[in-house]
Design a protein that fits this description.
Layout lengths: L1 H14 L4 H6 L9 E6 L10 H18 L2 E4 L8 H7 L4 E4 L10 E3 L8 E5 L3 H14 L3 H11 L4 H6 L11 H11 L3 H12 L19 H6 L8 H21 L4 H14 L1 H13 L7 H4 L12 H20 L2
Parallel strand pairs: 1-2, 1-3
Antiparallel strand pairs: 3-5, 4-5
Helix pairs in contact: 3-6, 8-9, 8-11, 9-15, 11-12, 12-13, 12-15
Length: about 325
């Protein structure tokens, strides 16, 4: 076994001397038109530095699938599910993790790292898949595209870091292109939509809440279904669902004939607390002769609502707008 591993290592070293596109052309033919299933078992907390590594590996799966003309279906991990057993019986083909549990070390093997300690883990008897993965990672990691993706995903986008150094800021998130696309679609400033995404997930596409909200914009399955979107784990579909939801909420307050700033404030409040809750706030404001078309006035009526303190929602609106103002100062 050690001799085979040594031979394979020598082959990888030899392949690394070829141009990257040549190695890609040598992708294993048996993988063409196949479908592989995968899951990413990295820390999905929105506050963890590891959260953005989920998006990075998800993007690598798309690149790998395109290079090998195969489909890779990446499913979000479900709490309390044993994905290592699923990998062992063949229900899934690849797990992204930084280690293999000790009890499974003989059944699985790790690829060379995609970045840091993160590896794609497959069954020990699936040598063809492992060889294809290793050859592709070896090749792709030498390209400028890989370096750009790694920089886009794995750098810090914490707003505090912009203030610490004099940066020529050219990106706000790993998902700028998608955010610009859907902000234009709904007529929002892309920096405002970026601020919402940051507030919801800190740009961690794997973020999950205790209320079953998922992804970059913390979308529930029921919300996604309303907009005819099925795969909210996919970053583009998640942003699309969130943007469409913001657009629908915005149209509600346009019908109230609120001014443009208050349309945004009420929309953000409804995105956070739910439109029904904000409608109740407006009704209570009317009952107490409080200007119901001014968000800053409506927040004063929270004291009259026995089942809604509103502190979180008030803070949510303030933080999103404050961050957006800062974004507007540092990037066009």
């Amino acid at each position: 076994m050690e001799i085979k591993q040594l031979i394979f290592t020598i082959i990888l070293l030899l392949l690394s001397t070829f141009p990257a596109n040549k190695v890609s052309e040598r992708g294993l033919q048996h993988q063409e038109e196949h479908t592989h299933s995968a899951t990413i078992l990295l820390d999905k907390s929105m506050y963890s530095k590891r959260g953005k590594a989920i998006g990075f590996n998800y993007e690598l799966f798309q690149k790998y699938g395109a290079a090998h003309k195969c489909n890779i279906t990446v499913k979000p991990p479900v709490p309390k599910s044993n994905y290592w057993d699923s990998l062992m019986v063949g229900t899934i083909d690849i797990i992204v993790a930084d280690s293999i549990p000790e009890s499974y070390e003989k059944q699985f093997v790790k690829s060379i790292p995609t970045a840091g300690k993160d590896c794609w883990i497959v069954r020990a008897d699936d040598k063809h898949l492992l060889d294809g993965i290793n050859m592709w990672i070896t090749s792709y990691s030498r390209t400028n595209e890989y370096k750009r993706l790694k920089s886009n995903y794995l750098r810090s986008f914490n707003i505090k870091n912009y203030a610490l150094v004099d940066l020529d800021v050219n990106r706000l998130s790993p998902y700028d292109e998608l955010i610009k696309k859907y902000s234009k679609f709904i007529g929002w400033d892309w920096r405002l939509l970026t601020s919402v995404v940051y507030q919801e997930s800190r740009f961690s596409m794997g973020a999950q809440s205790s209320r079953d909200a998922l992804g970059l914009m913390q979308i529930k399955s029921s919300t996604a279904q309303y907009y005819d979107i099925n795969n909210i784990y996919d970053p583009e579909m998640n942003i699309k669902a969130g943007a469409l939801h913001l657009q629908r909420l915005s149209n509600i307050y346009k019908r109230y004939q609120f001014d443009s700033l208050n349309i945004i404030k009420f929309t953000l409040a409804a995105y956070n607390a739910g439109e029904g809750r904000i409608d109740n706030c407006i009704d209570v404001a009317k009952e107490h002769n409080i200007p119901y078309n001014q968000w800053d006035s409506v927040v004063t009526c929270f004291q009259y609502m026995p089942d809604f303190r509103g502190d979180e929602t008030k803070k949510y609106v303030e933080e999103v707008l404050k961050r957006c103002d800062y974004y507007c100062k540092i990037i066009n």
